[in-house]
Amino acid sequence: MFGADSDSDDGPSALPLHDCCETNDAETLRALLAPPSTDGDAAEGDADPAANEDAEEEKEDGDRGDDEDDEDDEEDFDPEAEEEEEEEEEDGAAAFGAALTAGLARVSIDERDREGHTPLHVALLHGSIDCVNALLDAGAKSYVTLEGSPPLHIACAMSGFERHETFALEAVKALLPHVENESTQDDYGRTALSVAAQHGVLAIVQTLVNDFAPPNEEDTVEVYINLKDKTRNRPLHWACAYGRGDVVEFLLKSGADASLRNDNKDNALHCAVRGGDAKCVEALLKLHPELAQEQNAQSQTPAQMAAARGRPVIAKLFKLSVDAAADEDLKRFIIAPDVCFLHHSCPPITRLEKDTPPPENVNRLTTLLNPSNGTLRGKEFSELNVEYVSEVKPAAWVDILRCHEYAYLKKVQKICDQLPDIRMLPRAIGTIDGDTAVCSQSFNAALAAAGATIEAVEKIIAGETKKVFCAVRPPGHHSGPLGPVGTPGDPIGTGSHGFCLINNVAVAAAYARCVHRNKIRRIALVDFDVHHGNGTEACVQNTAPSAPQFKYQLPIGGGTFSMHMYRPWLDETDPEEIMFASVHGYGRRELQHHFYPGTGPTKSTKGEYDLDTEEIPAWDEDGVVEDPMHVEAEVRVSTAKGEQPWVLDVGMEGAGKRSERGHAWRRVWKGKILPAINAFEPELIIISAGFDAHAKDDIQGPVNLGVKEQDYEWLTTELVKIANAHSDGRVISVLEGGYRIQGGPISAFGRSVATHVRTLFQPNAEKYDAARAKTEFNAELRVRREIREKREAEEEAERQAYLERIAEEERAMMESNDAMDADDANGEKREAETDPEQTPSKRSRRGVPVDYAALNAKIEAEAAAKKAANTES
Prior knowledge:
3 domains; nine-stranded mixed beta sheet; histone deacetylase activity; 45% helix; alpha/beta; Arginase, Chain A; ANK repeat; HDACs; Ureohydrolase_dom_sf; two-stranded antiparallel ribbon; Serine Threonine Protein Phosphatase 5, Tetratricopeptide repeat; Ankyrin_rpt-contain_sf
């Protein structure tokens, strides 16, 4: 993450321990960690005479060896220069020593850098076992988490890289003596054993199980092996889902329960079929044949799943055949142009707070593609026959001019060309607007990014593959025909670029329709970035003619003029054969919650296409924001003529418990978007893959949609099913946003992208079934309604019980007062009998009548406060 090109030149490092761990400089690290010496220097007379004699002999030998070169070098010898050089070396050594001392004085062994790494985290992420041991010997805390992961989990995660397998095993063994409770879970509820099982190094799994020390009598090794995470997956589920046959066999022998279900009601055999490893399936069928008859949440048995996914070898184990085999032998491509690494949005990045970079920076690609620990370099991708492409032709102007106006492109190019070469002056950064920074190579990087998507189209058309992921930057989905896209009423071409220069997905779609018109016609562009792809939507809408008005101002006055805008991708059939669909964050104006870019109100330009279910969806509870005034404003300012492309937007805000927001996001896709894409019947699906809707990504602010890795996995699977049904499985995914890169290979961004790409690349021939999707969605809505009704009934029962308790207390008080009044009356009567002239007093102890309206309001206020507290949790 912070390589040599990111080091500051401003003097000694402020975080020397981190730097040593990153560069595997264990010697310097130990020197920094060593306590200062209290003994004086040894006297010269104490030196070993034999050692001195050997040293003298070595010196003489060295002098004799140098004599042969002295004559040749004599004319170049400069005593004064050599003396200066020696002084510089001495000064440098002194400065280095001072720097080490100063650095040690400023930092502690567990100090965190700007992204939350301690030195131990850095050593683990860079595979330095010597530094790990040095830190542990010096007392580094083995329980400090990074992005929710304890060090033991990080060590296990590093086993996902083939080059780090040996290191990961050594690190686990080094950490275990320092771990108080091995069953500690990360913020996803996963144990280190689950992480190790996922990545499949048997020796690590065996070490964790065999060396397990129960923290108490109840937590036996069997309990440890079957501990569930927050999605109810166990280590066995993870091993099966990732095809780790050896680990599966070991866990089964060690007490793993194969019948346990996860949140999707998958047993271990379901996971093994999904993982695609015949060895896992065979091992489970041998020991637990009954699992083959169990159904998951989609009413599928493992056998039915194997047949649907087109895995003939696995289906044969169930004595079934497949109708259509998955494309197991085809290559998968990750296209990541080297030029994209030259787009710098800030000066060199360091670990210091003062050097905090903008969200969109080069380390996003480093997180994915670093040869050492980039998440797209994990061994799971080599197992999927993935080929990496780093050299691509930049997009030709004719291809980007189908989507963008020439004047806009020349403006961006000119700004970049006027900047000094970033490779010579790494701080030479310019800006296009307040959000979007560029350097001398940014326009070239944008051309390469667009060129990558064109290369993806070519590989699919040539039959080399059906799945491509483009790891590119700068992103593009906010870039419209004139660059920025504002809200209705804003001057056209004004606003923020949102880090985007050229719309990569639009360029790819236009290229496919135009150049390969005989093979691809109907294209669906699908965007799951948390920010509305307003640029893509504008490019799609610009395939139909319009005449927007532009304002101008002159010294003698101003006015408006109309300019015809029309960028067809092929011909007049564009509006019929292009679709754009997006689910994104959206701010509520009435609450003054602005969320960039402020566009994309919930709408469909070709009528509603919600699933016609028996149960009525509660979209407001799921966070769907309706903004009819914004939709009306879009219609009012539009100058479009004729038929328009199908644009389907759903704006959302985070609603309800954070832990349940991912399910709400899924329901929106299930009920509003996926059925529409399926009905459109695309011949190619192009995804704007943004990962900033992740629950950990701070760029969302209060809108937080709470999406997790498993949600991206689910959506990717559904889009692949639609592609299988209509597009011969052809999908191109292009990186857009996603900024939670802290932790590198264990970051939310890195793991989300890896999950998406792995799911995209997995052989899977299953097709989208509209009838089944409707049945499943209706069942989910029914369960949700029943849960809601049960909760409301419980709240009402609690309310009634509270009212009855208050009424009972009031009755008891009244009875008590009546009894006291009776006693007083009897006492007064006796007093009157003894003193007839005394006047009886009129005392009453009756309580004040209960105000039931006020009481009910109080109860409702308490219920609302309780609901708000549950939402925050």
